[in-house]
Amino acid sequence: MSALTDEIAQAAARLVVDEGMDYPGAKRRAAADLARHGVGRAELPSNELVEDAVREHLALFHADTQPQELRALRRHALTWLERLAEFRPHLGGAVWRGTATRLSPIVIDLYADDPKAPEISLLNRGIDYDSAGDEDAQVLSLADRCPGLAAPGPRPDDWITVHLVVHDHDGLRGALKPDCRGQSWRGDVRALRARLAQEPDA
Q: Which residue intervals of the chain bear CATH 3.30.460?
């Protein structure tokens, strides 16, 4: 890995933590920002390298708040996994990987026989959402309140985003492949409960 690739990873990590950007967007913006400042071009870092930089950034600047925010988001994600159990939900993203802050969305992968079934489930519950996606997956995005993030006062800042990514029923097999270090990219209800049980209470 070149020094410039590492610099892109560090800059991308700041965007992920401080602005809530996703990894691909943060890497592209970081590389473009450095290029505009005459630093030059380099190979984009892998998601694992960006995640390492995110963890370093969190440890330096958010160690006093991030663990509590992560636990609140994981507890709320568990509620959604239980609510959508019929679609074999798996938690992914920063909330699963342990790098989430209050700016991070909850990302849940659903594996349904009928790709319209999750939408119907939301409609039946009276839940508003936006829909986007392509031929590979549909994304249902909604705003929700995470009680564990609420701060004292008349206007609690506890609104978060939940992304429900709808996949074909048979897509789960490939989704369970680990990263290059053997770590899982997502986990089901039982795996999330196990992680919560290992975390110290705030």
A: 66-198
